[in-house]
Write a structure and sequence with these properties.
single chain; 102 residues; alpha+beta; five-stranded mixed sheet; 3 helices; 5 strands; 30% helix; elongated
């Protein structure tokens, strides 16, 4: 893994965590560079960027250093459970039954 991947600084901590968690550096960089959401976190001391990729939500913590360069501090992923859509089959079935009932 590259500590300057994508033109940003990657801490040793985040590079270790990515290896431990089996995460790709490119996925984390893409989440940071094109997030769906972001928010400031006082607790983490930086911005949290997130994005859903397939069935995984990746979250990245980053902040700017004294040289005004972005530093990726940490990242993790968690599974996303999408809501199942209601099936309209029973409604359609009942409608067809009513059409042919006499």
């Amino acid at each position: 893994m590259d500590s300057n991947y994508g033109g940003v600084v990657w801490t040793k901590h985040v590079l270790q965590r990515l290896a431990e968690r089996g995460m790709k550096q490119g996925d984390v960089w893409a989440t940071w560079s094109r997030p769906q959401n972001n928010r400031f976190s006082q607790v983490r001391g930086g911005w949290v960027f997130d994005r859903i990729w397939g069935n995984q939500k990746i979250e990245v913590v980053a902040k700017k250093n004294a040289k005004d360069r972005w530093v990726i501090l940490s990242a993790w992923s968690k599974p996303v459970h999408k809501k199942q859509q209601k099936q309209n089959i029973p409604v359609l079935f009942n409608f067809v039954k009513k059409l042919f009932r006499k």
